[in-house]
Amino acid sequence: MRTEVHVHGILPLRPGVSLSQIETSLQPWLDYLDVESLDELKSVHRDEPGVVYDSRRRMLEICWTGDVGRNFRKVIEESLQGLSRATEQATEIQLSYYHEDGRDEIGIVFVGPNPESVQEAQRRRMAEDLSNLLSRHFNPQEVSEVVNHVNDLFLKSFEQRGEVGQVEVSTEPARISRGRRHLH
Predict the structure, then answer these.
(1) Per-residue pLDDT tens over the stretch 165-178
(2) In angstroms, rounded to a whole number, what is the distance separating the alpha carbons of residues 27 and 79?
(3) DSSP 27-39
(4) Do 8 and 95 share a domain, yes or no?
(5) How far apart are CA 80 and CA 11, in angstroms?
(6) Distances (CA, A) of 157 to 143, 151, 161, 162
(7) Which of 27, 51, 110, 122 has the smallest set of CB atoms within 10 Å of its CB?
(8) Which domain does 99 fall in, by range?
(9) pLDDT band at residue 1, thresholds of 50, 70 and 90?
(10) pLDDT at 46
(11) Is residue 10 domain-resident?
């Protein structure tokens, strides 16, 4: 069964990273789609740029949609993991899966140069999400208490895990209104 997927995010790259290094990192993705270069990695939606390397700004912009099979999740995670070495700071890449049966999933892959930066990006995202959710019902002081507790949990978790951390993937099923696809 084929699934439409949208991959979206911007990766800041280290100085000196070349197009060939990026293509080498993304080789599993390129092989999966049977293309040879980023230039051929086009989105099925003409208004999306696909995967664009801007050497002047040292950015890799990903705004790509395609029809994929079951193995794509493993392929994209492997490709993004390969990009970790080329990144200057941690960031998130959003994966939106639109299944034929009406189920939709949103996943986030955190990509960064080291486990500490990835954890910090995860912590920031969690604090932002919690603050947005809780501020609808609680005052700022109560929200701050919860966010501080979550910050402590992240610190404790990282200390227990040590330096062995990896780029983590967070995938959570979510219902998305069909009319809201591909909004950025």
Answers:
(1) 444 444 444 444 44
(2) 7
(3) HHHHHHTT-SSGG
(4) yes
(5) 10
(6) 21, 10, 6, 8
(7) 27
(8) 3-112+166-178
(9) low
(10) 92
(11) yes
